[in-house]
User: What shape does this take?
Amino acid sequence: MKQVRKAPIIHLLSEGFIPDDVISFGQGIPFFGPPKTAVSEVEKNASQPKGFTYSTDQGFFELRCIIAEKLKKEQDVRVDPETQIMVTAGANQAFMNALLAITSPCDEIIFFTPTYFNYVMAAKMIGCKPVFSSTDKQFQPIFSDLESKITKNTKAIVTISPNNPTGAVYPSSLLKKINTLCADHSLFHISDEVYEYFVYDDATHRSPLRFDSMMDHTISLFSLSKSFSLSGYRIGYMVFPENLLDELLKAQDTIGIAAPSPSQFAAQKAIPLGSTHCKKFFSTLENNRMYIQKEFSKLSLVEHCWTKGAYYFFFNLNTTKSSWSLAKKLIENYKIIILPGEMFDVSHPSFRLSYGNLSEEGVKKGLHRLSEGLEQLC
Assistant: This one.
């Protein structure tokens, strides 16, 4: 574990004093709560035997059928709930399950920069080598660079769309191209689709599962933490080729046995709602987006790219100062938390800003502090 860095958010927040009235653009959790029907379902079943005992390792069969129906309805993808779906304690566990099922030590996993640090940490934990592939100024993968990073040791390419930390949404044509590249090189395409419903303007989300007609090389990861604000419930799921089931069951049984049963009851009520729950709160998210764009356009030291997904903006700074040290000073002196680019394997001064966890008033107040801090510190 020594080759794995400290959990970066914990590391940052432990290095200094955090004021009581700090405003956070840091953690990627939504400002709204979960569906009432999901919570009620937990309350109804938590004291029943099925609600407080283990489920099967794969999760409730009824829930897996709901997931299969959701994929068919929303993405025109048909999978077998018996052999191609597993309910997990969130997408992070699903990713670890996938790596344990498909890799051996020293295998290479390709990630696009800026990266999602938990996935990179997971790869290092099990002895794999993370390989970083570049993105352009709009944070879209550079396909030629991706091709050049494939070696005889490559096992998988990871895409996150809509993207954390950049908010970029990869076009369907690019995802199809990457999926085909994986098939041509006998690689797995691991697709994080946690923010599937968080797309704005003309952006759309298309699952790479749609492009894998044989369902033999694509692994898709989903979570209920964002769209249904169930982050504390630790509930998600993964979809995968049938021949991986036995290996995935080994990982699932060892790491956590099964996803929490009360959370599975919540998921059975939440998933059929589709995008309707989070869409009720999109007016606030869109107002936050517009306000940030308007205010940041006034700052000459900020190089911005207005991406169209998730609830993040990732921006570069015209400064020679370390974004990590700037982040610490912003917390202590300006009462604002924002995550520095070093967390996401970016060397130049940069930040990820999350606008999903604050009200409109909170964003305005926080952005005033952030703008003042950046202008004075840089």
Observations:
- The chain has a mean pLDDT of 97.
- The domain at 37-274 is CATH 3.40.640.10 (Aspartate Aminotransferase; domain 2).
- The two ends are 36 Å apart (CA to CA).
- Residues 29 and 357 are 5 Å apart (CA to CA).
